[in-house]
Amino acid sequence: MLTTSKAIEVSDLLNSMYDRASELKAFDETKAGVKGLVDAGVTKVPRIFHHPSDDQYLDKSLLVSEGGDQTQLSIPVIDLGGVSKDSVRREEVVKRVREASETWGFFQIVNHAIPLSVMEEIREGVVRFFEKDDEMKKQFYTRDPMKAVIYNSNFDLYKAPSANWRDTLFCRMVPQGPKQEELPAACREILVEYSKQVMKVGILLFELLSEALGLEPNHLNNMDCAEGLSLLCHYYPACPQPELTMGTTKHTDNDFLTVLQQDHIGGLQVLYQNQWIDLPYQPGALVVNIGDLLQLISNNRFKSCEHRVLANHKGPRVSIACFFSTGMLPCSRLYGPIKELLSEDNPPRYRETTVRDYVSYFYNKGLDGTSALDLFKIRT
User: Fold this and answer.
1) Among 111, 235, 255, 347, which lies 20 to 30 A Cα-Cα from 248?
2) What backbone phi and psi angles, to 5 degrees, belong to 190?
3) Is 326 helix (H, G, I), strand (E, B) or coil?
4) Fe2OG dioxygenase domain: which residues (predicted)?
């Protein structure tokens, strides 16, 4: 843990003469993350974390009139119960998955078969890791994106316009994951178990998404969309001035699909019809969102929607985002719009890319408020 005097020194440096490059370096070299600042009693958000406000959007739920009544828009919640046994039920679920993926790009799932005890244990395991002493965590601190286990604060610290009030433990689990003993002791068993459980859910979701596109159930899985799985365990400390910063800048995900577990604190918002919509915590539910690569291969049929996380006086907030992607691994397979979805009226809108090239571009760009997909569009 940072000593109080060291934290104050870092904080004073970050808030005095504003040399952004030096201040980013000073923060990074503590290897204590945002939590280190908070633990030492910092009461002001350093300038490297200051964000311009999203004034073009309203930070409240969009209300629409239906028959004269004001009804709050909410993210679809889809019950997966019986989906593998009842063909009529499955058809209903596929229809709801299609609608949600084409409009929101987000939905929540319940009755997904991951036990509540496993969901609770992964959250507790993440908290255990981040609340260990700094010296233990520093052995995992790195900015090398090729590492299978990475602990740091802001993967794009030196690239993004503003830093986020968030620390992250990244674990690439499939394929070529670390040996179990290389994972942090505070959460290694549950990281392995949770990954196995989420992989089963992901394979089912890709079946439903394939059917929602009018394809055979195994189409996306046969394209290796579920070949890779990484866990991004985010820890958002309580923030003394949440109005000045963000938990996570608005962005889309650079994968095929994300399966997210959030906790009761909330703060996740989805951009829908030019408004930020709260995605509230629902006990036992998982949040699913379409990634950029699935928008690319579906030729814009499914939407990878922008989302963000607000900073909060309350904390810590914990979330576990499971990314279905091989990330930076050297896989040579090319992904472009699925040929079965194309026609004279629906020509390909994106050029082919490898997952690695796409993710590398995303990493180098950082969370700068723009979409990485733009680079891969076919200009007409």
Assistant:
1) 111
2) -75, -30
3) coil
4) 227-327
Q: What is the pLDDT of residues 188-204, one digit of tens each?
A: 999 999 999 999 999 99
> Residue 271: what residue type?
L
Q: Give me the domains of the chain, ranges plus CATH numbers.
A: 50-376 (2.60.120.330)
Structure letter (DSSP) for residue 299: T
CB atoms within 10 A of CB 170: 22
The tokens describing 98, both together, are 């299609």
3-class DSSP state for residue 63?
strand
The confidence score (pLDDT) of residue 180 equals 93
Residue 63, pLDDT score: 38
The per-residue DSSP string of 105-144 comes to SEEEEE--S--HHHHHHHHHHHHHHHTS-HHHHHTTB---
pLDDT at residue 331, as a whole number: 86
pLDDT at residue 288 is higher than 90: yes
CA nearest to 34, candidates 312, 293, 252: 312
Q: What secondary structure does DSSP assign to 166-202, as a single string?
A: -EEEEEEEETTPPPGGGS-TTTHHHHHHHHHHHHHHH
CA distance 108 to 286: 5
Please determine, for residue 306, whether its predicted confidence score (pLDDT) is greater than 70. yes
Q: Which residue has the higher pLDDT, 283 or 69?
A: 283
